[in-house]
Write a structure and sequence with these properties.
578 residues; alpha+beta; FAD/NAD(P)-binding domain; D-Amino Acid Oxidase, Chain A, domain 2; Helicase, Ruva Protein, domain 3; 20 helices; 37% helix; 22% strand; binds flavin-adenine dinucleotide; oxidoreductase; glycerol-3-phosphate dehydrogenase (quinone) activity; FAD/NAD-bd_sf
Length: 578
């Protein structure tokens, strides 16, 4: 199915219809959680011919899945831990996503590995990268990215003049891939909806329906309308990441899976602050630090510390920011300061607990469990392997359904916008001419919407004022804000400025300078009046202020207390125990 044949929209009318539909007939499977794992499960189940509903308490990808390092990678450090199977699986997924499933959203990215020890390090890192590159070949696919190469210090400095000469003795460059994590989740959900899945955000599961021991569905609070509904399903999948244990408690079950959270903080700085043509990977005491090219910016991270505080809004403290700056500055000739930091974001890794007290050593592999009849739990893993996780979860669903369900076919299902992408990319100059937009704009649009670009261009044709860039965030056209509401499930200002775009971390004003304009553009399709526009801007402003202040605090506890001072625009309900 291509965009031209009608990719499903996730607009306001579709949300209402999905909730109504979910409330009216028993589904084969209902998925709790609209992060990458839940989205993957919905797509896997829908493409096996099952009837599926997905419920997300907040915005799609508002949990961990918009707060990652945005890499589709095998993970060099798992290689060092001799976890070859995990690396091979992830690299095969990388090849599949790059070449077949989402070539419009997943892109190769180079990294320079500076060597600091003379003698043993080059052969050691080199051997690791020979293995990394060869594990990346998969059946029927090439690796999808160039192979690694060794560089002298002089050649490395030509690629990355920002590096301090004395900080390294030579380097190896290798390739991985990157993705806009939040947009990818939304695109998986649009694809799932195209294959018939019913999808709703701001719909929080607050309880379970039971018949004896068996789970027969969920109780849901529609956080926009305030209403409650029951969704009956033959199987329920819990894909709630760091909230897994809460759902487990809701069902009253002794947990088979325990997930705990480890916080990772990233900084965003303008591209001109680090003069380099390549990303950089640095070893740290615990793990690695990435300097990742990201449009006109760099993303630098991450930290890895235990987190037991608020999971919806993990806060970055001054200590987190200092940690990242200190480590990157160790290799830069012109150090970064806090004044260079445009954006900061924190995410929580859903780690399967119990193996070790050191969060960075906890397993990234996933598990699937069937704690009570009718309920499947899936947790752990990483973004890169979401498709494998989803497949395993739906295999468990199929087992519980007691009927013949076809095997997973998502390895052959391109995401919405993928089909025809390469041909459109090759025609970008012609598209620029016919649309009147600069070719750089067309490239930007193609890398966000793929072959669904027509739908954005139609908006512009109807209202040429939408061809103007946002004042204060000129990477984005005004049309993108409208499209985020009509097609991409955005319901509040925060959704648009944080996840459909990343203006909140890509500008020094953190989105405040465009908040009013964006809210006014959203008002039409969402039917907002002047009061609601004001309310949206106020809530967004409070959020940014609270985040800024929390980033001045020395400890997690202080940062968390301040971040929690900014309320949610729609209060998320406290779940009722069964
Ligand atoms: C700092 C950091 C960097 C990372 N970098 C990478 C990387 O570069 N590459 C990689 O492969 N992986 C990376 N990861 C790991 C990856 O991001 C996660 O494994 C993945 O995003 C987890 O997805 P998820 O769907 O399990 O969880 P989430 O995205 O958190 O989704 C769970 C969803 O469930 C919803 N929910 C919770 N309770 C309810 C309820 N009662 N009703 C309805 N919905 C509910 C939540 O709102 C949330 O949206 C990184 C993680 C972190 C923290």
């Amino acid at each position: 199915m291509t965009a031209r044949m009608g990719t499903a929209r996730l607009g306001p009318a579709e949300r209402s219809a999905a909730l109504e539909q979910m409330g009216s007939a028993e589904l084969d499977v209902v998925v709790i959680g609209g992060g990458i794992v839940g989205a993957g499960v919905a797509l896997d189940a829908a493409t096996r011919g099952l009837s599926v509903g997905l419920l997300e308490a907040r915005d799609f990808a508002s949990g961990t899945s918009s707060r990652s390092s945005k890499l589709i990678h095998g993970g060099l450090r798992y290689l060092e831990q001799l976890n070859f199977d995990l690396v091979r699986e992830a690299l095969q997924e990388r090849a599949l996503l790059l070449q077949r499933i989402a070539p419009h959203l997943v892109r190769p990215v180079p990294f320079l590995f500076p060597l600091t020890h003379l003698g043993w390090e080059r052969p050691y890192v080199g051997a690791g990268l020979v293995m990394y590159d060869s594990l990346g070949f998969s059946f029927g696919f090439t690796r999808g990215v160039p192979g690694h190469r060794h560089l002298s210090r002089r050649r490395a400095l030509r690629l990355a003049p920002a590096l301090r000469r004395t900080a390294f003795s030579g380097a190896v460059q290798y390739w991985d891939a990157q993705v806009d994590d939040a947009r990818y989740v939304m695109t998986v959900l649009r694809t799932a909806a195209t294959y018939g899945a019913q999808v709703a955000s701001r719909a929080q599961v607050v309880g379970f329906l039971r018949e004896g021991e068996r789970v027969t569905g969920v109780r849901v609070r529609d956080l926009e309308a305030g209403a409650e509904l029951e969704v009956r399903a033959r199987q329920v999948v819990n894909a709630t990441g760091v909230w897994t244990d809460d759902i487990q408690e809701l069902v009253g079950g002794r947990g088979q899976i325990h997930v705990r959270a480890s916080k990772g903080v990233h900084l965003v700085v303008p591209r001109d602050r680090i003069h380099s043509l390549t990303g950089i990977i640095l070893r740290t005491e615990k793990s690695v630090l990435f300097v990742i090219p990201w449009g006109r910016h760099w993303i630098i991270g991450t930290t890895d510390t235990r987190w037991d505080l608020d999971r919806a809004h993990p806060a970055a403290s001054r200590a987190d920011i200092d940690y990242v700056l200190e480590h990157v500055n160790a290799v830069l000739s012109v150090p970064l300061t806090r004044d260079d930091v445009e954006g900061v974001y924190a995410g929580l890794r859903p780690l399967l607990s119990g193996e070790s007290e050191e969060t960075s050593k906890l397993s990234r592999e996933h598990v699937v469990a069937h704690p009570v009849p009718g309920l499947v739990m899936i947790a752990g893993g990483k973004y890169t392997t979401y498709r494998v996780m989803a497949r395993d979860a739906v295999d468990a669903v199929a087992h519980g359904l007691d009927q013949r369900v076809p095997p997973s076919c998502t390895d052959r299902v391109p995401l919405a916008g993928a089909e025809g992408y390469q041909a459109l990319w090759n025609s970008r100059h012609r598209m620029a001419q016919s649309s009147g937009l600069h070719v750089a704009r067309i490239e930007h649009l193609l890398q966000r919407y793929g072959s669904m670009i027509d739908e954005v261009l139609v908006l512009i044709e109807r209202d040429p004022s939408l061809a103007r860039p946002l004042t204060g965030a000129d990477d984005h056209l005004r049309a993108e804000i409208v499209y985020a509401v009509t097609h991409e499930g955005a319901r509040h200002l925060n959704d648009v400025l944080t996840r459909r775009t990343h203006v909140s971390i890509e500008t020094f004003h953190r989105g405040l300078a465009v908040a009013e304009e964006a809210a006014e553009l959203m008002a039409g399709p969402l039917g907002w009046d002047g009061e609601q526009i004001k309310r949206e801007v106020e809530y967004y402003t409070k959020r940014v202020e609270a985040e800024r202040l929390s980033q001045e605090q020395d400890t997690d506890h202080e940062a968390d207390a301040i971040r929690l001072g900014a309320p949610e625009i729609v209060p998320v309900a406290t779940p009722d125990p069964v």
